[in-house]
Amino acid sequence: MAAAMLTLAAPTAPASANSKYAGIVIDAKTGETLYNSSGDAQRYPASLTKMMTLYMLFEALESGRVNLSTRIPFSAHAAAEPPTKLGLKAGQSISVETAILSLVTKSANDAATATGEFLGGSEAQFARMMTAKARQLGMNRTTFRNASGLPDGRQVTTARDMARLGIALREHYPQYYKYFSVRSFTFGKTRMGNHNRLLGKVRGVDGIKTGYTRASGFNLVSSVVADNRSIVAVVMGGRTGASRNAQMEKMIRLYLPKASKHGPGINIPKPGGVIAVAALQLPDVGPVPALRYGANNRIALAYAAPAPKPVLGRAALVETLIRQQQVTEPARASIAAPLPPEPIGSASAAAIDPVTTASTQPRAAAGSETGTRPEGWQIQIGAMPDRGAALALLDKAQSAGGNRLSGTAPFTMTYTKGATQLYRARFAGFSGQSSAVAACRTLKKKGFGCWATPN
């Protein structure tokens, strides 16, 4: 009798108790919650994480920072990610469009990591950008730690937050949302099918994303538009892919007819600009700073104030926030956010500024600027608004890098786009790609952003 009453009370609940399960159905025209079972309890997103990675990539496309043919390089870290993956080697690259297709269909972990490193300078930095973007979208119980959804106990979300992200993807980027309905694509000689088996099977389903890890169970976010009704539904923690899909089909069948045919839609404000500041440790929960356009189409970060204030340079901004006790002193040590590799933007490297390598000589003895770029593999650890800040960053990195930076030459390089000039902080003189990547790995563990480049 008790079991029968439970079935009547929650007709879409899984047949047996499942502590991982969470589900929600949102009417996308009114915002009404049509069904909720643990929808606000934290769960592991698994590859639903790639929805945010794609949101950030769509944002970069719309802003013009990249286009569909822009190449995304694979680092050794990205290439080493476990399956599911494309299987590229370090140094190879794919187009932005291929990255999109590989994420929505095959859910390729290596492509997700490469995309995060490309947009954020490092995957850890990109994860902070993703978390900040989640706050802007009202996803207040979500924290991202990587771009792929590979297991990390600190990477959490809720069914409601994932539904909100699904609606934001559909409403904010309709020109790119169509990729979620792609049934398959061919990479090289391999045809890759979409993991979302409801596409083409359930009327009205036009995407979005599946996910699975052992800790999360089987997850699915579905967007459904039919009969002038629109819902976004989420199932998390399914025991199998088949049971997850059956649960989603049942939710769609029961709740789509209950959705409204009229309504203004859910007002999820579209954030302006791209978050590109990893200097400050953004909070995992709660409000985030206001974000405004700064130099080079990137974002200057400033906490909201009653009256508009001028956008500060990154170093000055951190100092101001420290004085206001809005960030802690350790934030000062990582105020550089490395710029993505060359394909983002067409700015030219106008000048190279070598820096004295001997630790006993002062930085003031650095050589004069030249127009010759050092040959061979290099690493970049940041880009600063003034040369002094870049030199200070090189100093810190050289101390942290230890033997990995032995025999290398620090230098700054001006990077100009329009009227904006930044100073890239780099080390040159590595024996090859492996030594450059190893140095980056060491520096990342010390909290620095870093990426390797052949010149």
Please specify the SSE layout and strand pairing.
Layout lengths: L1 H8 L12 E6 L5 E5 L11 H15 L7 E3 L2 H4 L13 E3 H11 L2 H12 L2 H14 L22 H14 L1 H4 L6 E4 L2 E4 L11 E9 L3 E10 L2 E10 L2 H15 L34 E4 L5 E4 L11 H10 L24 E7 L22 E8 L2 H15 L7 E9 L2 E11 L2 H13 L5 E3 L2
Antiparallel strand pairs: 1-2, 1-9, 3-4, 5-6, 7-8, 8-9, 10-11, 12-14, 13-15, 13-16, 14-15
Helix pairs in contact: 2-4, 2-5, 4-5, 5-6
Largest sheet: 5 strands, antiparallel
Alpha-beta content class: alpha+beta
Q: What is the tally of helical segments?
A: 12
The CATH topology of the largest domain comes to: Beta-lactamase
Tally of strands: 16
Shape: elongated
Cα Rg: 23 Å
Residue-averaged pLDDT, rounded?
78
The domain count comes to: 3
Poorly predicted ranges? 1-10, 274-371
Task: Tell me what the structure shows.
The protein folds into three domains: 19-258, DD-peptidase/beta-lactamase superfamily (Beta-lactamase, 3-Layer(aba) Sandwich); 290-334, no CATH class; 348-453, Alpha-Beta Plaits. Helix content is 30%, strand content 22%. The protein has helices spanning 2-9, 49-63, 76-79, 96-106, 109-120, 123-136, 159-172, 174-177, 241-255, 314-323, 387-401, 433-445; strands spanning 22-27, 33-37, 71-73, 93-95, 184-187, 190-193, 205-213, 217-226, 229-238, 290-293, 299-302, 348-354, 377-384, 409-417, 420-430, 451-453. The strands form five sheets. It has a five-stranded antiparallel beta sheet, with helices on both faces. It is elongated. Residues 371-455 form the SPOR domain. This is SPOR domain-containing protein. Pfam families: Peptidase_S11, SPOR. It comes from Pseudohoeflea coraliihabitans.
